[in-house]
Amino acid sequence: MLRSFICSLCLCAISLAVEAQTDSGATPSSIKTLTLKQYTDYQKGPGLEQMALPATLNKYPMPDDVLRLKKELKLTDAQVKKVTAISQYLQLKKTEIGQSVLRNEKKLDELFQTGKVDEGSITFYGNRYGLYEGEYRTTVLQACYSTYNALTPLQTTQFWKLKKP
């Protein structure tokens, strides 16, 4: 009896530990491998901050950050137009790649669900994630580079003095 009680207690503790590790408040999305939050985040596109680190840590600014400080930096109309175009293209690519990831995830789910999965399809769809991430990172870093080149050296220095952490 004591042994059975101890086993029950252990099983209860294990199940509580497993439940604590999972996001119990996570609402499922239409793609069962993603939570609703993940799905919504991908619809908007992946975050920029981590992708931009090689640039931003080396003083190449993000276009939206520059646009927020356009008055303080005394950007010309031509500079505002150029940086705005960079920002809009970045947003377009962000959304496009997020949608591609969602389509890819849905296809993988479908292949496994229907039993039509094989090693080739796993490799194909798995590698596409790397391509999407690489394309997105390239776009983010190019946006930082182009934004840097749109500014004068004085504006770049001023930007980093004004930028809030």
From TrEMBL:
Range of residues in the leader sequence: 1-20
Keywords: Signal
Source organism superkingdom: Bacteria
Protein name as annotated: DUF3347 domain-containing protein
